[in-house]
Amino acid sequence: MQTFLKKLELQGFKSFAQKSDFEFPYRVVGIVGPNGSGKSNVIDALRWVLGEREAKQLRGDTLGNLIFAGTPKRAAVGFAKVTLYFDNRERLFPIDAPEVMLSRRIDRSGNSQFFLQDAEIRLKDLQPILARAKLGARGLTMIGQGQSDLFVRATPDERRLMIEEILGLREFRLKKNQAERQLASSEVNMEKVAAMLEEIAPHLKFLRKQKSRFEKRSEIEKDLRTFENTYFSHRFQALHRDISVTEKPFAEAEDARNIKEKEVSEYERELKAVSGGETHDAEHAKKLRSILSEFFTKRAEIEKLLARAEAKLEFLSATPTHAERSSIEMKAILEALEQEIRVMDEWHELDKIKNSLKTMAVRISDFFKTEPKADTKPFEAEIEKLRSELRFVEAEIAKSRIEEERVAEEQQSSNKEFRTKVEALEIKKNELRKLDQLVQQLKFDRERLKIKMEELERDWAILGRSMDELHTIGEVRDIVEFSDLERKMLRLRGELAAIGEIDETLVKEATETETRFEFLTKELEDLRNAVSDLRSLIKELDHKIHMNFKSAFSAISDEFNNYFQLMFGGGKAKMKLKMPEVQIQDIIPITAEDSVNTETGEVKEEKKEKLSELSAGVEIEISIPRKKIGSLDMLSGGEKSLVSLAALFALISVSPPPFLVLDEIDAPLDEDNARRFSDLVKEFSKKTQFIIVTHNRTTMESADILYGVTMGDDGVSKTLSLKLDTAKS
Ligand code: ATP
After folding, report:
1. What is the per-residue pLDDT for 609?
2. Topology of domain 1-141+658-729, per CATH?
3. How far is CA 645 from CA 640, 649, 650, 678, in A?
4. Measuring from atom 14 of ligand 1, which residue has the nearest CA?
5. 445: number of Cβ within 10 Å
6. For position 586, what pLDDT does the model report?
7. How far is ligand 1, taken at its centre, from the CA of residue 144, in Å?
8. What's the mean pLDDT in 81-105?
9. Which of 424, 478, 537, 655 is 20 to 30 A from 407 (CA-CA)?
10. Which residues' Cβ are closer than 6 Å to ligand 1?
11. How many whole angstroms from 652 Cα to the centroid of ligand 1?
């Protein structure tokens, strides 16, 4: 017959120092052996490999005690390992394999590992798989030594969990617990994220404002740049054009001016030449005038000497008497005397008068002197000589006069040429002046344009732009209205000034904060969704647990009654739910409506009831024939075990687990009850595999196979299988 649990392997676990195998090819496996031989260690091994974490549940102080500690005759080992082999043809494990192998290993450093099909798996991930296969380390599927009354001793809540486990609802419980944990943590996170968002929001508002100002500023700057480009480029090109246009006329004017300058120099040179000739003529004329003047002087001297000589000759040739002497002469002397007397009237100095009188006396005396007749010949010769000299001089004078006239004529013609040259020079000079003015004007125009260009370049540089940039803007073909552009640029600059400078780090911070804000908003949204999903999941799981539990519970209770009556030969037993008082705050809101209702306290009765049922514990009510039982505590040890067994069989009759592990559960039973137990095991072995540790012969008889566990002198457990004849069927 097919069995679910196929094999158990132990190595280094507790007293099983060496590798020991338990094959479970039969539905009822009995494990027998003397006290202390290690039978319960086998159950501990099963419990441990199925995920038990508490050392106490494994009958040890520490998990390290699970490893073979050594005996006087056998050394300790370094690790313990337990492996279970399952038949998975019915896919109780969600693994696509006919056989599943589950192991657990622990070493002395306390390192504990689970392996599913040799791949390591975390307990957290393993638990739902085991729960789905209705396998648990505790509860009614694995009843340890001295726990035969487990169900009776358990609290109502523990009983509920035992039932849920056998019903396979533990999987949902685990999921629900996990979902609740996740929900709690998501809610905490949600609060944190919401708080963070709330904290960021005002600062972000400020940063957004800065960013928008920055963007506005950038937009204006962009527009301004476009206008500046057009304005400067257009002006640059226009000026450039204007400057180039001035080049040719300027060069031409300068050339014309230079030519004219040369002409003027030429004329000046010519004029100088003419004025040089004129000077020569003037000097010549001056020289002639000097010669003439000398001749005139000479002539006058000669004439004077000649006159004197002729007078002498005349005097000598006819010396007159006093009487003859001219009365004229006498009259002249007299007139001279009267003149002297008139003059003397004004004189006051005696000496002067004396001298004048003396002179007069001499003149009168001379008048009366009579000179002798003299020789006239020398005088005549003298006169001839003088006359000859005079003729010569006069001839020379005449010659000089002719020359003078000629020079004057020459001078006159030279003057005329000079004037003509001067006039021509003046005309040229005028022309030169005009050309100079033109050159100056053109130069001035060009300089003015160059200054404008410099100003433009300076203004461009002030904008922080390079000349290369200006050159690369290229030709602006649009018709540009400068005043319009200037107005626009002015307006934009004004707007920029109004916006003011913006710290770029704030813009960077705005982007970062915005990203963080978006991230947190998304996270909050995700958390809200997660919370909502988790609430739905919890609701769904609650529903599943509730529905499955509810549908099975009354059947379990009925079966409990049946098996109770079987065990006690009558009486009555039932299980009932102990409804806890549901507190409003215990209700997890599933929907927004729930949440509102919770806050206002308006929880619907139906929901409250359902929630009550969900967490309701299980109570037992019994009445034993011929006995009045006030409480379960009044029951004997055996009776408690019987009630527990009735519950166990009721449960497995409604929802049989794949296997049950029972450690000396039959110990407190009397022979009749042991027989009944043995019969029930046989009956239920069709549905469930039993692994039973027992000292009871009746129970042993119900087993298909018995494993003997012994312990030798070395303190090490050993196994031997005792196949029974009956088991072969
Ligand atoms: P009973 O029939 O009396 O219940 P049992 O067969 O169930 O006995 P166990 O309780 O399984 O006996 O085994 C107990 C034995 O296992 C003890 O002798 C104990 O010394 C031994 N043992 C327990 N842990 C270790 C360990 N870590 N190393 C070595 N031996 C151990």
Report:
1. 58
2. Rossmann fold (3.40.50)
3. 9, 6, 8, 12
4. 36
5. 16
6. 52
7. 14
8. 93
9. 424
10. 14-15, 33, 35-41, 65, 68-69, 145
11. 30
Gap between the Cα atoms of 728 and 284, Å rounded: 179
Atom 3, ligand 1: which residue's CA is nearest? 35
Predicted local distance difference test score (pLDDT) of residue 611: 61
Q: Higher-confidence residue: 722 or 33?
A: 33
Q: Looking at ligand 1, which residue's alpha carbon is closest to its atom 26?
A: 14
The domain spans of the chain are 1-141+658-729, 327-369
Tokens standing for residue 62: 């520490």
Q: How many CA atoms lie within 13 A of 358 on its CB side?
A: 6
Query: Best of 40, 74, 694 to mutate for ligand 1, by most ligand atoms within 8 A of CB?
Result: 40
Among protein residues, the one whose CA lies closest to atom 25 of ligand 1: 14
Ligand 1 nearest atom to the CA of residue 71, by list position: 29
- Above 60 in pLDDT, residue 669? yes
Q: Are 168 and 627 in contact (CB under 8 A)?
A: no
pLDDT per position as a tens digit, 569-606: 899 999 998 877 655 455 445 444 554 444 444 545 55
Centre of ligand 1 to C-alpha 25, Å, is: 25
**729 pLDDT higher than 50:** no
Which neighbouring-strand residues pair with 693?
31, 663
Output 282 or 671, whichever has higher pLDDT.
671
Average pLDDT over residues 520-537: 92
How big is the CA angle at 496 (ends 493 and 499), to the nearest 5 degrees?
155
Secondary structure (3-state) at 90: coil
pLDDT value of residue 600: 46
Ligand 1 center to 15 CA (angstroms): 6
Contact predicate 692/28, CB 8 Å:
yes
Q: Is 512 a residue whose pLDDT tops 80?
A: yes
The Å distance, Cα 690 to ligand 1 centre, comes to 22
CA distance 487 to 491: 6
The answer to whether the beta carbons of residues 703 and 692 sit under 8 Å apart is yes
Cα–Cα distance between 411 and 416 in angstroms, integer?
A: 9
Between 67-76, 256-265, 330-339, 475-484, the lowest mean confidence (pLDDT) is in 475-484
Q: Give how far Cα 150 sits from Cα of 139, 174, 552, Å.
A: 8, 22, 21
d(CA 117, CA 120) in angstroms, rounded, equals 8
Q: Burial of 724 by CB count in 10 Å (0-12 exposed, 13-18 middle, 19+ buried)?
A: middle
Among 11, 31, 39, 41, which is best to mutate for testing ligand 1, by the most ligand atoms less than 8 A from CB? 41
Q: How far, in Å, from the CA of 40 to the mean position of ligand 1?
A: 7
Identify the top-confidence range among 8-17, 166-175, 445-454, 661-670. Answer: 8-17
Q: State the CB neighbour count (10 A cutoff) for residue 627.
A: 12
Rounded mean pLDDT of the chain?
85
Q: Which atom of ligand 1 is nearest to the CA of 44?
A: 11
Q: To test the ligand 1 pocket, which listed residue (10, 11, 15) has its Cβ within 8 A of the most ligand atoms?
A: 15
Taking every pair of C-alpha atoms in the chain, what is the biggest distance, in angstroms?
Answer: 239
**Is the distance from CB of 711 to CB of 10 less than 8 angstroms?**
no
Q: Which two tokens stand for residue 53?
A: 């974490």
**How close is the Cα of 170 to the center of ligand 1, in Å?**
31
What is the distance in A from the centroid of ligand 1 to the CA of 688? 28
CA distance linking residue 610 with residue 595, whole number of Å: 17
More confident site: 102 or 624: 102
* Nearest atom within ligand 1 for CA of residue 43: 11
Mutation pick for ligand 1 pocket among 18, 22, 35, 37 (CB with most ligand atoms within 8 Å): 37
pLDDT tens digits, one per residue of 96-155: 999 999 999 999 998 999 999 989 999 989 988 888 888 876 777 888 888 888 899 999
Q: What is the pLDDT of residues 157-211, one digit of tens each?
A: 999 988 988 888 888 888 888 899 999 999 999 999 999 999 999 999 999 999 9
Contact in structure between 648 and 151 (CB atoms under 8 Å): yes
